[in-house]
Every structure is written in C-alpha cells, then in structure tokens.
Here is the input.
Amino acid sequence: MTIKQAKPLLAVEGLSVEFGNSRVVDDLSFVVQPGKTVAIVGESGSGKSVTSLSIMRLADTMGAKFAAGRIVFGDRDLLKASQKEMRTIRGKEIAMIFQEPMTSLNPVFTIGDQICEVLMLHEKMGKAAAMAEARRLLDMVRLPDSEQLLKRYPHQLSGGMRQRVMIAMALACRPMLLIADEPTTALDVTIQAQILTIMRELQKDLGMGMVFITHDMGVVAEMADEVVVMWKGKKVEQGPVSQIFADPQHPYTRTLLAAVPRLGSMTGEEFPKRLPLTVLENDVPTVVGEERVQDTARYNDVPLLSVKDLFVRFDMRKTMLGKVTHRLSAVSKAGFDIYPGETLALVGESGSGKSTIGRTIQQLQTAHLGEISFNGRSYSAMSAADRFRMRQEVQYIFQDPFASLDPRKTVGFSIAEPINTHGLVSGGKAVRRRVDELLERVGLSSAHADRYPHEFSGGQRQRICIARALASDPKLIIADEALSALDVSIQAQIINLFMDLQAERGLAYLFISHDMAVVEKMSHRVAVLYLGQIMEMGSRRQIFETPRHAYTRRLLSAVPVADPSAERNVTLMEGEIPNPVRRVGDEPAILAHEEIDPGHFVAKSA
Amino acid sequence: MAGFLVKRFLQAIFVVIAITLLVSFAIRLTGDPAVTMFQGGGSMTEDDLARIRAALGTDKPFLVQYSDFLKGMLTLDFGRSFVGGTQVSTLIGKAVPATLMLAFVSMAVSIALSIPLGIMAATRKGKGVDQAIRIFSLIGLSFPNFWLATMLVLLFSITFNLLPPSGMGGIQSYIMPAFTMAVILTATNVRLVRTAMLDTLQSQYVMVARAKGLSESKVLYKHALRNCAIPLITYFGLQFGGLLGGIVVIERVFNWPGLGTLAFDAVAARDYPVLQAVITVLSLMIVGINLLVDIAYGLVDPRIRTE
Here is the structure.
C-alpha cells in the first residue's frame, strides 16, 4: 500500500453492489489522491464499470443496490446522499467520460448547446457567457475552428472529435474528480494517443484526480499512478503502477499481463509463432498449449486470392436529376495477393478502406474497377453459380460477435445454415454431427448447439462465429476486427485458435485490424492502408522492424506500450484524417509504389 | 427544400387523381342516383329517369363525367349536390372546419395524455404504475367507440344533463366526441411512447445527461423525448389520416356536421359530386399531413436535415 496522505479526494471503502441477487462488486476499497490517477483494470463483467457508475450514483437508475460500504468524497458519504444532492455534485465536482464517443452526445442538439447546458446549470452562466466559455473549452481540447464547431451536430464529427467534445464537457466546471470509463477503447490508436495526451495535460493543469477504467494494459502503463485489478467483482491486487507491472502478485494479474500483446515482441522472428498461454486453472497460472512456428504459407503455389487495381467508390451526393456531384473513394488502386496458408493483415485507421476491401472480396460490395481472382480465376469471368460458390470458399467473421448471430435462432441452426445452403452434408443427423464437431473444434461443447446466442459470453460467441465460418470448409477467412471487441485474455486464446486452424487446414486469412500488436503476433505479411491506398506492404519483419513510410511509423509509435518505465517517443499526429468525400472530377492522386526490398513496397509521396 | 416540395406536389396530384378516379368509378357501380331520388315517389317511366339523368349529367360516359369533375376542381367548383342542389363547395366549406377541429382536439388531448403517461410507464418499467397504465390502455383499446359514445351520452346528457348530446356548439359540445376518440387513440399512443422511450433511455447520451447533473425531468423531456420524436411523429401522422377516416362513426353518433356526416349522406343518396369532393378534400388533407410530418422530421432531427 502507498503511504496514506492526510485527506484523499475519494475513498471507496468496502463497497458492495448488487443487482437483484447477484453481487457484482464485492468489498472493494481504494483511494484517489488529488491530482493522481487510479486505473481500475479488469475484464468485461469484472465490475469495474459498475464501480464508476456507483461513485456517480448513476448505478441506481439501473437498479443497483448498495449492500455495504461507503464512498467518501470530501466530507460526504455519497452512498447516503439523495439523488437531489448528487445532482449538484455530478457534472460539477465529479464528471465522467464514457466509452462510446459515437453515442455519448445527444444527436439532436448542437455541440454548443450540450456544453452550455452544464455551465448554465452549475455555474449559473447566461447563454452568451456560457457559449464563450464553451468555445474556450473546445480550444482547450485542441479542436480546430471552435467557433463553427459550437453550431454543429454530433453526427458531423468524427469519433475522436466527439470524444474531445465529451472531455471539454466533462471539464467544463473544473471537476475535482474525473471518471473515465474506457475513454479511448473505441478509437484508433493515433487518436487514442492524442486523447490520452490531452487528458494527461489537462489533469496537470487542473490538478484533478482521475479514476481511469480500462482493460488495456498499455493505456494503464501510460496513464496510471496506482492500479486496482478487479476480477469477478473483487479487488485482487492493488499497487503503484511500476510494481504491478514489474512484480504482479495475484495469479490473475500475472495471466492478464502475460496475455497482453506487446509490440516488438516478435522482433527477429521470421514467422508468426503460436505461443503457449498462461491461463488460470484452479486459481493457479498454468502454461498451456504448445509453441509452434507458424510456417504455413505456401508461397510457391498459385496465389489463392489476387486483388488487382481495386477501386471502390460510394456516391455521396446527387443533384435533383440524379447526377453524382460528390464521391467517396473508399479504395483506390489497391492490389495484393494472398497465398494458401498465409495471413495477410490489412491495417489502418477507421475510414482507411480496409473493411471495404474485405467486403468487396466477399461480394458484399461491388467494385468500381479492378479485378479479384480466386485460385487464378477472375470473379468477372465466373458464372453466377460459380460466384455463389465463392461464398462457400471465402468466409467472413465480423467484429461484433453480439450482432452477427441471429438472436432468435439456436447456435446450432446458425452453424448448420452454411452447410445446408451449400449442400455440403446431407441428412439431418449428418449435419448435426458436423455441427457438433465444429463446436468442439472451437473449444465449445456439442451440448451448446441448442442454446441461443444471448446465453454466451463475447468470447464464446466469437468462437461460434468461427465455427460457422468453418462450417462451409472455406479456403479463405476474412476476419474483420474479429478480436477487437474481446478481452485480452480471450483475444490471446482466439489468436491461438486461428493459428491452430491455419496449421490444420491450410487456411488463409485476410486479417483486418487496427491493433498493431495483434497484427505483429499473427500475420505473415502486412499491408498498411491510408485513405483507401496502400502506403506500405511487406513481410511482417519488413513492416515492423524497418518501416519506411512515415505513416507506418506514426501508426507504430502511437501504440501504447505496456511498460510504465518505457520512454515514450510519440510523433503525435495532429488533427484528423482528411474528409475523403470529394467533388467528382477532383479525384485523389493515385500513389505509385516502389519495391525497396524484395516484397517490400512503399508508396512514393505524390 | 424547393426540390422536395415540388416532388411532394407532383406526388399529391397523382394521389388525388388515383383516389378520386377509383372512388368515382366505384360509387357508380352501387346504383343509379336517379332511381334513388325517386324511391317511393310513385310510378315512373324510363323517360322520366332519362330526363333526370340528363339533368344530373349522369347520362354522359364515365370518363367525360370524370374529366368534367377534374376541370371543375381546378376552379374549386365541385358542381351542385344532387340532393337539394346546394353548391358542393358550400357544403364542404362548412364541414371541413368542423371535422378538422374535432380531429385536432382529439389528437391534442391524446398526445397531451399519452406522452406523460408513456414516459411514466417507461421510467417505472415493470412497477405498479406501468402495469396500471398498460391495463388501462388495453381496456381503452377494446372499447368499441360507438358504445363508449352512447354510454357517455346516456350518462352526461340524459342522466346528469351536463353536456349537449349532439351537434356542434361551444367548447362543451367538443368534450364527449373528442374524449371518445382520444380514449382509443391514447390507448395505442401510450404504448408507442413507452416503447420508444424505453429504447431511448438505454442510450448512452441519456446516461451522459444524467452524469451532467441534470434533473430527471430535463433528462426525460429534453434529452430523451426529442430523440423518440421520429417514430412518434411518424405514427401520429399516420394516425391522423386514419382518424379522418374513422371520424365518420363518431360524427354520426354525435350528429357532428363534419365531412363524415356529409360523406355518409352522400353515399346513401348516390350524391356523386358531394362524395367526390369529400374524398378529394380528405386525400388532400392526408397528403398535407404527410408533408407536415416530413418537414417535422427535419426540424427535430438534424441528421435528416442535412441529407
């Protein structure tokens, strides 16, 4: 424990929170000193978000009961305060930032109105004074053109901009305590780096205490002074950040840290490696699984998939007579091959066109120009029936395992559907046997087939989605941010599952991701996308060890390092990705590529 | 906006032509007004009937009659009623305000009741208040409105002699017809508001609004309500159209001098000019309401405005 100072800003003492009969937070204690940051770390369902909502007493509206404990803020026990008293504290003395910037702002009010609301409520400002202050706040979070921004609506802003507006709004009344619940989880790494820097600087300026809730150990290393590790509603470990990383005591903390993908961990390795995992078995960290070099790519074969000069455009605005005036060039002249047994990663920020490429390969989207061939045969030369068969050979796994399974169908039905659609196995019993095999292959049991998606956790659902993708016995799986919604420990398990399946079946993956550390672990080759064009492409070692394009380097430098003692050398990207919607006629310049090393392509600057 | 209005106008013309064509054609299948007029009027020869038909203009081919009607419409001249010979435009001019007033009052009462009740039910989901509101809404839904109307008349006009049993007069005369209609409307609207509100209350921005320290009424009525406005406006718009159709029964029961009564009598007498005019006016109103709904979308939701 740290030395107790005279008076902490916030003291949570023996807090227990219950929903109905289930206790989601059990006997939790920690203190926040003024000007310091406490990170609460844990997986989904560990009770960390409920803790933050309890401090705000917003958990009440969700039906939470406080079974025991105190939350002392200043001189008051917040658990004894009435909602009316809490309203004078919320937004004024304790402010909160939420995870989803896209849904945190009310879509029907202007940015200015939403910030002014807090100022007029707590600071009793008039509208004009509040607007002037709101503008100052937007400048403070380094949003350009604040005057105009006040009049705009949330949907006109990107995720990163919205999260900055949220920060401005939270800091409007100079709160003494800021609670940030996964504030950067939904953002790209480069934007995350910007937001974290802003938060750190403002914390210093305003001297506020911070409770930072996250599951990302990299972010913890960067932000926290003190770390509280939660597991199944209980605090299992607490200590200064350096101590937690250097000498974790509790088995859960050790497994958590072991599962964190670390950028640079694969330096010097020619191929991806399937690594054993540390998991908790009867509360003892145990290393399971084998270590294996993932030398599965068959580069001497014909490329399984070949994409040439692909252009995908979306018409954004039309005149009354239907003439297109504005267009979004989502993908411009992208080209790459994927070999059997290979994992090619497509990395880039949101809006880079990586998902569009995946969707075009899966024929969910039509290409404007260009050619896609599978096993040497061009899509355009195929008959409709052959193109339909392609949907069997190529399978897609989506980011959100909650949204990609039909909630009204059993898991077994969803897995059997591709088998029946493509007539792969005939007879109800044979199909059922195949479904059982698939479920067992992805680490579930055949008894799960009759259950519905809501009965499973996020990680289990993603396993089900993998089983469904495998059901049609594909050659290529497009995994579109398939790991992004999962906790790190689950993520590590799924990575290994992907690798095992690749080794067994010679599967090729198009691995679409924004998480550079995961990409480094998994892929044979990497293509970096920016605004629909490939900036750099090469083997994993070429991209991660000798990145040549400035954008690749910035992307790599923005990744938080899960080591509190590491020197940070971030070349911060100022501003946002430019708006890709352009007037017709004003087409983006197509960059030429140069092969600087065998297989290592870099875009020349325009 | 201009383009949008032009599109809507062309759409309205198409709708009016389609509806009036269908109605004019259909009513001519139901019987001859010349015969209807003379029912019980003693003996009549084919010559008499022919003369009446010539006087009414119903001897001409259907398409000629219909195009005459369209031409008249452009100058707001709908011809004369077959019954009594009054100018149709005069009849319509009296009936439209009566119907619109009744419809607006009914809608206004229903909206004023269903929004707070729906929000109350949503915020206390599963609790006693919610259950009670749902049960009452179910009871309201299952009332036949003519029965409710008759009961109200029995109670308030005949037993207690508080309200006029029929006709249109002062505010008092609105109470029973508007209430009868509002009961049915509110029964569905409460459930709609409740569902829309439950969805919206799950949103992150509602939590954010609470985290700002706003009062519960601000959170609900400012932040949440405006976000449920789109489904509500859509439904209220559709409902208003349905209301204009359904008002016939209520107007009959309360002898309300509106479009419903006019249409009812016109159908009975095969009074083509009146019926055609009523249908035209009703369809114009419905097109107008839909236009207002579309404009309202843009006003409440900036995401639609910029499209």
